[in-house]
């Protein structure tokens, strides 16, 4: 659609937001600061969790 510059800018912003979320709320063991099931589901569904951390975050839901 001719808006490649805008698309690139929003992709970069998206990545920054995801990194900031992980840095602020995600712990190394996969726990989130707010330990509620719904928050884990939302974080995983919205892809706010880095791929390599998904198994650890998912494990928090199962145990």
UniProtKB/TrEMBL annotation:
InterPro entries: 6hp_glycosidase-like_sf, Bac_rhamnosid6H. GO terms for biological process: carbohydrate metabolic process. It comes from the Bacteria. Residues 2-59 form the Alpha-L-rhamnosidase six-hairpin glycosidase domain. Pfam families: Bac_rhamnosid6H. This is Bacterial alpha-L-rhamnosidase. The lineage of its organism: Bacteria, Bacillati, Bacillota, Bacilli, Bacillales.
């Amino acid at each position: 659609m001719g808006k490649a510059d805008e698309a690139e800018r929003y992709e970069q912003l998206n990545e920054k937001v995801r990194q900031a979320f992980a840095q602020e709320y995600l712990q190394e063991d996969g726990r989130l600061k707010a330990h509620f099931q719904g928050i884990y589901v939302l974080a995983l569904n919205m892809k706010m969790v880095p791929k390599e951390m998904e198994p650890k975050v998912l494990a928090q839901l199962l145990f």
